[in-house]
Amino acid sequence: MTILVYNKKNKEIDPVPTGSFCARVYQIIHIGTILSYQGQLQNKVRITFELPTEMMVFDKAKGEQPRVLSNDYTLSFHEKAKLTEVINACDPNALKTTEDGFMEEFDIETLIGKECLVNVIHKPSKDGKTIYANIDGVMKLPKGMKCLPAINPVQILNYDDKWNEEIFNKLPDFLKDKIKSSKEYKKLKGLEIDTL
Questions:
Q1: Which of 67, 73, 92, 135 might form a disulfide with 83, Cβ 3.0–4.6 angstroms?
Q2: Which residues contact 153 (CB under 8 A, 6 or more apart)?
Q3: Alpha-carbon distance 66 to 88, whole Å?
Q4: Is the distance from CB of 52 to CB of 147 less than 8 angstroms?
Q5: For residues 146 and 131, what is the distance between their CA atoms, to the nearest angstrom?
Q6: 3-state secondary structure at position 183
Q7: Computed from CA positions of residues 82, 28, 48, 25, in that sequence, does the dihedral angle turn out positive or negative?
Q8: Cα-based angle 53, 56, 57 (whole degrees, multiple of 5)
Q9: Which residue has the higher pLDDT, 58 or 183?
Q10: Facing residues of 56 across strands?
């Protein structure tokens, strides 16, 4: 039996195959501080990778485009944080500790355009009818391996100096809903901020 993923137009789209792929960060979306599924407030960022070796025609007018995969990360560069794994894979020297052994901040936007290797696994939906491709790990590119040039235009959305309604409006509804639930979005739009 074949298990297929469907987009909004009900066209059949197979998930990205399992395995390791050269990838490049092309989109960073600051989701903001939201309630996590564990019931904790967490400041989240969504990083999207293009896979330039995995081309597909999604729209005949645009021709072949690279497949993309995204993941949400808590804004933390603790040594066990998943975001730290991404930073170290994309820029191994970025988190070198200071003389006192403590780094106060890191600009996530510096990851734009950086190359890495993403490991893709398949996970079924709760009902078992749909298979999703998920990023299981992000690693540094092996020595001598090169990633093809960037294809997608860079996209950054943050609450400070790079808020762009056009980028926001093109995001999938589930992601827009997450962003709209954040404290940062409510503050940006002058909405009442929930207190927990």
A1: 73
A2: 26
A3: 24
A4: yes
A5: 29
A6: helix
A7: negative
A8: 150
A9: 183
A10: 65
Find the DSSP H helices in 1-95.
Answer: 82-90
What span, in angstroms and rounded, lies between the C-alpha atoms of 30 and 7? 24
Query: Rounded to whole angstroms, how far apart are CA atoms 71 and 16?
Result: 14
Parallel, antiparallel, or unpaired: how do β-strands 131-139 and 12-13 relate? unpaired
Given a cut of 50, is residue 9 above it in pLDDT? no
- The residues, any chain, with a CB within 8 Å of residue 109's CB and separated by 6 or more, are 28, 156, 158
CB 137 within 8 A of CB 85: yes
State which H helix or E strand residue 165 sits in.
helix 165-170
Q: Alpha carbon 74 to chain centroid distance?
A: 11
| Spatial separation of the C-alpha atoms in residues 49 and 154, rounded to whole Å | 11
Residues constituting the chain: 196
* Interval 61-79: pLDDT, tens: 989 999 999 999 999 888 8
Enumerate residues 6+ apart whose C-beta is below 8 A from 27: 46, 47, 48, 68, 70, 152, 154, 155, 156
Q: What is the pTM of this model?
A: 0.88
